[in-house]
Design brief:
With 164 residues, the protein is an alpha+beta fold. Helix content is 30%, strand content 25%. A hairpin with a 2-residue loop joins strand 4 and strand 5. It is rod-shaped, with a radius of gyration of 27 Å. The relative contact order is 0.13.
Length: 164
């Protein structure tokens, strides 16, 4: 029987790691607890141990590979057993990980309550100045990218508008 050795969730905040070095080579015998590789996370270097006994049949993540949680790093088993093809599974894990990064990096939409009016976070002083100068706070926020519109944000907006 072939055991798939996956990169586990080793900490709540760790989603990826880099395979720094393989300490065992394909064809070597391994036992549970043997250190297979060094894995580097943003928190440090971790010794990655075998969870099964047998022969290290295939390494699927070469040194220098950045892998997400769940990625099949290696296959351990009897030399007579047929090896499963994990390339498609690993490709799917990588794709889902990349998609999660894209979703996480997407900007949050500006809240629009019923009636279509955009809600803009602004200080009371900035609201007063905008009202006095006839400025649309949503336009100011969009142009400056500010999360919170302040008097300083309005001054910067007016300066770029006057200069451009």
């Amino acid at each position: 029987m072939v055991t798939l050795i996956r990169f586990p969730k080793i900490d709540a905040n760790i989603e990826t790691a880099t395979v720094t070095a393989w300490l065992k080579r394909e064809g070597e015998a391994v036992a549970p607890g043997d250190v297979l590789a060094e894995i580097t996370t943003d928190k440090g270097v971790v010794e990655f141990e075998a969870t099964a006994a047998g022969t290290l049949r295939r390494i699927t993540a070469p040194e220098g590979s950045m892998v997400p949680v769940g990625y099949v790093l290696a296959l351990i088993g009897d030399p007579a057993d047929a090896l499963p093809d994990v390339a498609a599974e690993n490709a799917g894990i990588l794709r889902r990980h990349r998609e999660s990064l894209t979703v996480a990096a997407a900007p949050l939409p500006v809240a629009a309550p019923p009636g279509g009016r955009v809600v803009v976070r602004a200080t009371p002083a900035a609201r007063r100045v905008a009202r006095e100068k006839g400025l649309d706070l949503a336009q100011v926020q969009k142009a400056t990218g500010a999360d919170l519109v302040t008097e300083k944000t309005l001054d910067e907006f007016l300066a770029t508008r006057a200069g451009g």
